[in-house]
Amino acid sequence: MMKKAMIWGISLAFVITGVRAQSLDDARKAIDAEQFAQAKGMLETLVKNKPKAGENYFYLGLVYIHNEHLDSALNVFNQGLAADPKNNLNKVGQGIVDLYNENASAAATKFAEATSGLKRRDYLELYHIGRAYIDAPQPDYQKAVEYLDQAKAKNNQDPLIPLALGDAYFGLKNNSMAYKSYRDATVLDNTLTRARVQMQVITRGSHAWQEAIDGLKQIASEVPDYAPTYRELAETYHAWANTATTSEDYAARNKEAVAFYKQYMDKTDYTVDSRIRYADFLVYVKDYEELQAQAAELAQLEDVNPKILRYLGYSAYENKQYQESKEALEKMFTRMEEERIISLDYLHLGLADINIAVEQDPVDEALFDKGIAQLEKAVAIDSSIADDLHEVGMDLVTNKKKYALAAKVFEIPAATPTSRNHVLDNFYVGFATYYGAATKQLAEEPARTEWLKKADTALGLVIEKAPTTQDAYLFRANVSNLLDDPENPKGLAEPYFLKYIEMVKEKGDSEIQRNKNRLVDAYSTIAVVSVKRGEYQKGRDLIGEVLKLDPENAWAKQTLQYLEQASAASTGGSSGQ
Fold first, then answer.
1. Which SUPFAM superfamilies does UniProt cross-reference here (predicted)?
2. What is the pLDDT of residue 19?
């Protein structure tokens, strides 16, 4: 689920409205109410008016961190430290930036520096370090508890400390200690709305959906301007939707989720950053139409977070607007740092390329192969993505009848041993390649032979891993027959056809009837090869098996008649000499 808003300041239900207040307490109240744009404006004014007060820089830096502008945050912390060297909070801020950049050792060093000379009553540095370990991209809840316990030992009257302890214990899945901590926070400050909200989050965690919703709605009715309540209502409805057993319930609950998130937006601020967070939520609830609308608007802004182009690409793909998806993602690739590119980016770009290519007449094979290369990159980063490619290949087989292209898709999970469909996708490499060759979609050499060899290997793996898969023998036989020399065959297919026939017969008459046409083809193919190899009696016997299955088979009758005439002529000719 999406990352919760960070909680740093005085956590009261009071929301700043009307005339902009200029005190630090009011800025922190705006932060708690998740009115980050308003808090940023207040703090910028405070920094301007009181340039020597380091605390103002610190909270401004935290707002930048919340909005994922780490470079700006670090710059503000550096300025704050230069302006007020004795205030250790900005040293903590520098450590928080390291923590968000996943440099835990550098963060620990700065935190140690910031806390080494604390006076007896100094506790805010400890509190904010503990808070940072909760909110970081890679949380360390146990370390957070250690710092927060130190802060509490210095000041047991600040309600933010038990509130943060509640979040840490909740992260540690110790719900009883989390609930107690939240309750302790409300005892210290009975207007602490966030603590009440978090107790309902614990209720949600026990899957008591309606109880949590009722509790959150009660809080919203009592403190209607406290925005985080509506965000938690949105996330509760979405979590509940994920347990739905019908598509109707899933859609209805997610509709409620989006409605409450819109209320949350109404009560915070419609800044670019808050709209990006709204887009984050739309990804979770899979509301791709609304996501595409929001992302398309945001993408028009200069220097917008390139993540929005990611969302535009994903949503356009889900809405079957493949060209728009491709354009958005390619633009994102040019604007986003390489280390921020994720596997799903390559996946969606690859799928967009594949769909665009297949829609062309004839198929744009160069673009299709480019899409395959993107899918391979995605799987190289995250092998679990291979699990999802089976459906892509099946769509090409069943709906588009593009067998040779489907084989290229199946080959990716077939080459990924950890894939959930590893054996099945190896089968479909063989299946799709055979039909690709049989339908002349795969006709040019040397590609045809190369793919038939791949198919033979893939079906061999299926036989090894799942030896009772009778169709694996059938398709390996068909593939082997195509690999054989048509003029001077070696009979490569025969052992696989015979094994397939044996397996069908072992299952009895009903299985024989279900596979009658395939059995006829198997016997017929072995018969033709036998005759070409001069094994005429064997050929006649095999054709006899065809006639047992299909007494009116015209080809079998004609071929058997021809063989008997040829045999008679050969015998007569010999006796006359």
1. TPR-like
2. 37
Q: What is the pTM of this model?
A: 0.70
Cα 102 to Cα 105: distance, rounded to the nearest angstrom: 9
**Cα angle, residue 428 at apex, residues 514 and 405 outer, rounded to 5°:** 125
Distances (CA, A) of 247 to 241, 250, 319: 9, 5, 18
User: Among 245-259, 444-458, 492-506, 552-566, which is the least confidently predicted range?
Assistant: 552-566
Going by pLDDT thresholds of 50, 70 and 90, the confidence category of residue 572 is low
Which whole number is the average pLDDT over 416-439? Answer: 96
pLDDT tens figures, 78-126: 999 999 999 999 999 999 999 999 999 999 999 999 999 899 889 999 9
Structure tokens at 410: 């199946």
Average pLDDT over residues 507-515: 95
Place 72 in a pLDDT band, splitting at 50, 70 and 90.
very high
- Residues 533-542: contacts with CB under 8 Å, at least 24 apart: 533/489, 533/491, 536/563, 536/566, 536/567, 539/563, 540/564
Q: Which of 478, 474, 453, 448 is nearest to 463 (CA)?
A: 474
Residue 86 CB contacts under 8 Å (≥ 6 apart), including other chains: 54
How many Cα atoms occupy the beta-carbon half-sphere of 47 within 13 Å? 21
Helix, strand or coil, per DSSP, at residue 271: coil
In whole angstroms, give the CA distance from residue 42 to residue 178. 32
Q: Closest by alpha carbon to 474, among 499, 457, 446, 506? A: 499
CA distance 563 to 547: 15
Report which of 7, 11, 22 is spatially closest to residue 56, judged by C-alpha positions.
22
Cα-Cα end-to-end distance for the chain: 91
Mean pLDDT, to the nearest integer, of 9-29? 56
Q: Within a 13 Å sphere around the CA of 436, how many CA atoms are in the beta-carbon half?
A: 26
Cβ atoms within 10 A of the Cβ of 493, count? 24
Which of 562, 500, 565 shows the shortest CA–CA distance to 526?
500
**Weakest-pLDDT range from 152-166, 196-210, 271-285, 456-470:** 271-285
**Alpha helices (H) along 364-421:** 365-381, 389-394, 403-414
Residues 6 or more apart whose CB falls under 8 angstroms from that of 561 comprise none
- Classify burial at 549, counting beta carbons within 10 Å of its beta carbon; exposed 0-12, middle 13-18, buried 19 or more: middle
